[in-house]
Every structure is written in structure tokens, then in C-alpha cells.
Amino acid sequence: MNIIQSIVLSIIEGLTEFLPISSTGHMILASSVMHIQEDAFVKTFEICIQIGAILAIVIQYAKRFLKGISIYFKLGIAFIPTGIIGFLAYPYIKTYLFNSTVVAISLLVGGIVLILIDKKVADQEAKSDVIENMKYKNAFFIGLFQSISMIPGVSRAAATIVGGIFNGLNKKQAIEFSFLLAVPTMFIATGYDLMKTNIEFSGHEIFLLGIGLLVAFITAWFAVKVFLKIVQNYGFKYFGYYRIIIGILFLIFIK
User: Fold this and answer.
1) Number of domains forming the structure of the chain
2) Domain span at 122
3) Which residues 6+ apart lie within 8 Å of 215 measured at CB?
4) pTM of the model
């Protein structure tokens, strides 16, 4: 992988990680288009740059994390289904489902769901005034929705947002909880993947990782802010249209 490819992948990671369009799916599709060989370093690179995107959320939402401990209990409950299912099923998912066809189909189906959800959430009022007051059972069910995102192309953000909407959150709360839940989920998933990785980096590879972390952080920072404005003004439907278009294009052109 060269520096241009590393920057492109990092931009894609930052732009898509917290949007309901699947960062993993876009990384797989981009790697396919750029003919990047999936060696040990590339796999590690794609995992590590997620940390840059996570840090953008940690800094932007630092005040929410420092408000009190109740949000940590809700996030912990929401993580349980993903943690258990991920530990048991992720090796098989990574072996058999990480390919362009699965991604394209997941993008298509997810796009349709987002368009339908957009109509449901338009006038939905939240059951709780703040997400800290959400019931534990609702947090758990949002976690169940998140576990579906282990299928590449589904999108962790899309799954948790849809889960939040079906569990009594309005669109703003669903997005916020999705952002907050991303922090423990991605830190743990990234750490688990890195623990299983036995690789020594060259000077050039360390340089690529540094560039990737920085680019992913910057692009994620701006992507989150823009995403919130788009959803407030236009809802989720345009993300659904985008997913459908990308999914169809890749089913047609990517073999």
C-alpha cells in the first residue's frame, strides 16, 4: 500500500465511520477498486485508523462522558449483545462474509430500511427527555441491533440509529447514543483485533499509520458535524438513496 492509498482509505474511514452508510463496506469496496492487496499490514492499518475516528467523538462529546456515571451503565448494557455475539461469530463472519457482493447487498437493504425509517421518525417524540433516562431494556435491544452490523455493509451507525428509533428515541437522541456507543464498541473491537495481530512494522509502515490516524481524526471530526446538520434538516432518506445507488453500482461493475 502506498501513501496515496493510505490517505484515501483514511478519508473514507473518517467520513463513513459515524454515518449510516458502513465504513467497513466502503473500505472493502475501496480496496477492491484500488486493487490493494489484503496483507497483514493493510488489515492492521484498517483497524488502527479507527482509533483516529474514535478520538474525534471522545473529544467532541467529552462533556457527555463527564456528566455522570449513568450513561456508562446504559452503554455497558448496550455493548453486551455485541460483545457476546461478536466473540462467538465474528471469526466466521470475517472469513465468509467480507466480500464486495455481501457489502453491496447489505448497502441496498440498509438503504431501503433508512428510507422507511425516515418516515417513521419524522414526527416521533422521545419517551425520555435525555438518553441517560432510557430504560436498561431499551439499551440492551439497541445493542442487539448493533450486533447485526458485524455483517459488512450493514453499518454500525445505521443499526444503532434504527435500534434507537424502535426503542423510543427521537432522531437526535438515536444519533447521539450511536456516537457514544461507538466509543466502547470500537475501542474494544480494535484492541481485540490488534491483540491477535503479530506484526512488526517498518519505518514506512509506521509513517503510513501516523498519517492514517491523523487523516481519519480530521475527516471524522467534520463528518460528524455535517451529518448532524443534514439529519436535522433532511432526515435519513438521502443516506438511504446513496446506499442503494452505491450498492447497485457495485453489483453491476464489481466482480
Assistant:
1) 1
2) 3-253
3) 7, 10, 11, 14, 49, 52
4) 0.89
